[in-house]
Amino acid sequence: MTVKDIISGESEYLEFKQEVPKKSEIYMKTVVAFANGSGGKIVFGVEDNTCQVVGIHQEEAFSIMDGITSAICDSCTPMIVPIVTLASVEEKVVIVVNIMPGSQRPYYLTTKGKENGTYIRVSGTTRPADSFVLKELEFEGANRCFDQKYAAPEASVTEDEISHFCNKMYQYAAEHYRTEEAVERIRPLTKQKRKSTDKVRKSTDNITDNHKKIIQYVEERGAITNKEVRNLLNVKDSRALKILKELVAAGVLHKEGKLKGSYYKLK
Prior knowledge:
By secondary structure, this protein is α+β, with helices and mostly antiparallel strands. It has two domains: 3-128, Methyltransferase, Cobalt-precorrin-4 Transmethylase, Domain 2 (2-Layer Sandwich); 191-267, Arc Repressor Mutant, subunit A. Helices cover 48% and strands 16% of the residues. It has helices at 3-8, 25-36, 61-75, 113-117, 131-150, 159-176, 180-184, 191-203, 209-221, 226-233, 237-249, and strands spanning 14-17, 40-44, 76-77, 83-89, 92-99, 108-109, 119-122, 125-128, 253-256, 263-266. The two termini are 33 Å apart.
């Protein structure tokens, strides 16, 4: 966590809290939203309106961290296990709670139940998931669990069989989301998208989580900018550019546009 991150303000992947509220539900909604999305961080010790670093009393920091961890583990279903660390910003101590994207979606507040306790992140805000989004999260969670449980590395299938299966998945999703807005969010799985991760694996020594996050983002939204990479990965400009260049060199992405108007798409 750096001063630059603080100055950039809250985003889809970053939220500030001046202090740890007595009612954990106040920030627990955001925890759930991050797990249902692309992950994110909650920073305690930063005033959310002014982005002023106020800090946490250092002598109380570790007990506060333990309390946050316990509250998150006890309040969410399925269980969410956070990564809670200390950081120093402007010579003050802040607590950073890192929530990774979940694979058992939807995540929700146990006390409110699935229908009323499921939240998602929209820009820099946390909002309740409506019935259509809830179905989409259930669909994503079911597919991820199926992939993990029934993966068959030695199975042999043809390209036509894969394409047919992907088309059936798209048709199923389109039939079960009844609004035009929901259907528009569904993107057909193309051969190009299926091979994107394989390209990185073959072209780089070690495929990283950062590579995977960027590829997933581009698959879902069509393109990504340097600024979006910085927000997605919570990294500096130079680091974001380096990772993008790695994906370009690997033949996964290609750059379009010039200077500030440039963006990256699947190749």
